[in-house]
Every structure is written in C-alpha cells, then in structure tokens.
C-alpha cells in the first residue's frame, strides 16, 4: 500500500496557547451548559444542585480551573454549600442566629480540590475546577455542586432566577446567556424502577470566543519536509514534520500541565487515514459530507513522560494516509494540514506561499526514512530549545 507518513512533534513550554479568531467553525455547537436544579424547598428558600457540562469537543478547562459568578435577583444568601465554595463571605452582620456561607449580592464560586473531606462532597465535584473536553473524556467533562439558598422564595412563582452569569475558565473568553426555565430534570433511581424530578430547573449556556480570551496569538506552527530521492522519483510516499511550539515571554508565567493535551488538525486527506501510532484519534465532522478534520490526543503512558520532562518535553506520532492518486500531489504543500488547534485554540499557520513544496530535483544523497526521522527530531528540538532560551533571557 502506498502511504504518506507524517510525524507530529509537539514541543511544549510554559504559557497559554491562544488565537485571534472569535468563532470556531470546527466546533460550531460547542458550549458549556449550566443546569440549576431546585431539589427541595426550605423554610426560607431552596436546595439546588448546579451542574456544569463541557459540551465542547476539544476545548478543556485547565488548571487553576473554572470560576463561576452571578448576581442575585433579590436579597438571597447562601446558607451552605457542598462540593464548592465562594471566594468571599461578604457582610453577614445582620444575621443573629447563624451565619450564612455567603451574603454577597454577586457571589463568586470555585470548585473544591481533590481530597476534600467526604462529608463536603457530592457526585462530580472536587476536581479543582478542571474539566476535560466532551470528545476526549466525557466522564470527566462534568462538574457539580450543591447550595442551600435563603431569602429566596419557596415556590416556583416566588423564586427569581439569578442574572449576569460569568464564567472564567480560568481566564476570560466565555460569554454566558440569561438563565432560562426549562422542563424539570428527571432522575432515575439506582434500581431503575422509579423516576423523580426537580421542582424547578433553569439552564445557562456559555460560549467561547478566542478573540475575547486573547487578542494576541502565541501558538505557532512550523512545517518541514525531508525527501528521499527514491521516494521523490517514484512518488510513493513523503515524510513530513509538524512542529508546534510556544515560548515564555515572561519567566514568571506558570508552567502549564499538558497531561490532557489535544490537537485538532484540518487536512484534506483524513478520508484516507489508515493507521496512527501512540496517539488516540477521533474524526470530527462539523458539516455533513465533509471529513477533513481529526482530533488527536495522547495516551497516559506517553503523557506521563511529557508531564515529567518539563519545558523541553515532547511527544510524537506517525500518521499513515493511503495515497489517493486522484487527489494527492507533492505540489503546494498539499501534504501539510490547513489548520491546527492546540487545546482548543487556533494556532498561527505559515502563509500558504511559505509551505514546503516538492523540490525541483531530488538530491543525490539517499537518506533512509529512519535517519530522516532522527535528524528532524534532533534539529527541531535544538531549534525550539534555542528559541525558548533566547526568549526567556530577553
């Protein structure tokens, strides 16, 4: 079988990957949905469970995690919470018989950390605010907490919905719509013989804009090719390297944990993908009839090496494409991707006229594929290391 071999080399360092785009066409329906379920009434309010679903295909919420805020419609207070806490208590001096957890008009809520005492937990809580993407790890794309609200009304008609929801994950970028009352959530008991439901439910939808998150792009991609003269002459396969890197502009920036990294690649030949090594893969098809986008992410064994290696760590993989002679060409950088996202943010690609093209004549030197791989990895690492040292020192 004739194949194209693509090596993906990811060079990571500290800081945040960002983009200038305000709309992501590769995940047009992705969002974070908040579901607020009123579970029971109390003497002066209600007990609710708030659940956050990360329905984005490949965009995580990374450390230090999400921060959720809103403005109460009346003079509500939070008597107590499980699975999360507010960052400030506020002025509770008017309460004589018991002090609420929070009396602020605009509370700010954060997730509890792993290891929180069991009697302060509920299901899907206590992840330090970290949520994985829906396509990569749906079981860890949900976060929940419970709160008891006072001075709030005790019926569906007297309860007022909070307003002005904000979500930082952990920085800016998300815009939340108004709370909307929806059909009460139904729950199935563990024996699956009975269905109960919330007394009242409302939803809030938050969408992401890369332009709001960071106007100045810092994630960059470089592309290179190595042509074996036999390969070029016979047109059987091509070896490419894609390098994704970003350097620290400020040495005080925190070192990011990329143990749950993912890569989204737009390439015209994903219909002909035959084999992938050391990475996981999911086809993304935001538009019917078009299969040109794939999502890649690492397996735990290799990610552990990446996490322990620090700023100079790298992971790599080979992607094998079947060559369709009706569409394949060496010309105009066809073998390279058109767009690359790292952890949900669009990287800056080289301009089209800078893409590596097939040479006019192949070299007289014949390199084995293995030598080409080793040479490319070594040169890429050396170049990236020099860039990182230069920027950190400057």
From TrEMBL:
Pfam families hit by this protein: COB_C (PF25079), COBRA (PF04833)
Biological-process GO terms, alphabetical: cellulose microfibril organization; plant-type cell wall cellulose biosynthetic process
Annotated membrane topology: Lipid-anchor; GPI-anchor
Compartment(s): Cell membrane
Primary subcellular site in the record, as a coarse category: membrane
Annotated Gene Ontology cellular component terms: plasma membrane; side of membrane
Keyword line: Glycoprotein, GPI-anchor, Lipoprotein, Membrane, Signal
Domain COBRA C-terminal, chain residue ranges per copy: 256-356
Signal sequence coordinates: 1-22
Top-rank taxon: Eukaryota
Family assignment from sequence similarity: Belongs to the COBRA family.
PANTHER family: PROTEIN COBRA
Name listed for the protein in its UniProt record: COBRA C-terminal domain-containing protein
Lineage: Eukaryota, Viridiplantae, Streptophyta, Embryophyta, Tracheophyta
